[in-house]
């Protein structure tokens, strides 16, 4: 049985203890972008990602120990009937976010601001505590969170 904390004062027991079939699995998000060159400029020059692969409509980036896939929105491949599209720019809504976990959020935000990256607000501790985080939007409107232990 695994136990997950749903709040500071409550722990929820989950009876399914089978876990994911591969304990070494890693989640690497894929973001749909409108303009790959513009997205790469932001992620590489602004945030400091390293490009591992670059094709006409796809790139694979490394950020620390994590990887991020960028793909130009288009028709889905034969093995996936779902078309990926970037968010609608200018709305105050997001279907998700990319979380970049760091040792010191405030220090990372400072460095990124020196590179010209604009944040939605200063690093802050949420009401539940235990972390410091700051948010930004990439050129396609994907929400990005820089987060560290509080």
List keywords for this structure.
alpha/beta, single chain, 150 residues, 14% helix, 2,3-Dihydroxybiphenyl 1,2-Dioxygenase, domain 1, four-stranded mixed β-sheet, three-stranded mixed β-sheet
CATH level 1 name: Alpha Beta
Tally of DSSP helical segments: 2
Low-pLDDT regions: none
- Which fold name is given in CATH as the topology? 2,3-Dihydroxybiphenyl 1,2-Dioxygenase, domain 1
| Assembly category | single chain
CATH superfamily: 2,3-Dihydroxybiphenyl 1,2-Dioxygenase, domain 1
Provide the residue-averaged pLDDT: 90
Helix content: 10-25%
Tell me the overall shape. Answer: globular
Report on the structure:
The model has no long low-confidence stretch (mean pLDDT about 90). The chain is globular. It has helices at about 35-45, 105-115; strands spanning about 1-5, 10-15, 30-35, 50-55, 60-65, 65-70, 95-100, 130-135, 145-150. The strands form 3 sheets. A 4-stranded mixed beta sheet has the order 3-6-5-4, with helices on one face. Strands 7-9-8 form a 3-stranded mixed beta sheet. With about 150 residues, it is of the alpha/beta class. The chain has a single domain (about 25-75, about 85-150), classed as Roll (2,3-Dihydroxybiphenyl 1,2-Dioxygenase, domain 1), CATH 3.10.180.10. It is built from 2 helices and 9 strands, in the order E-E-E-H-E-E-E-E-H-E-E.
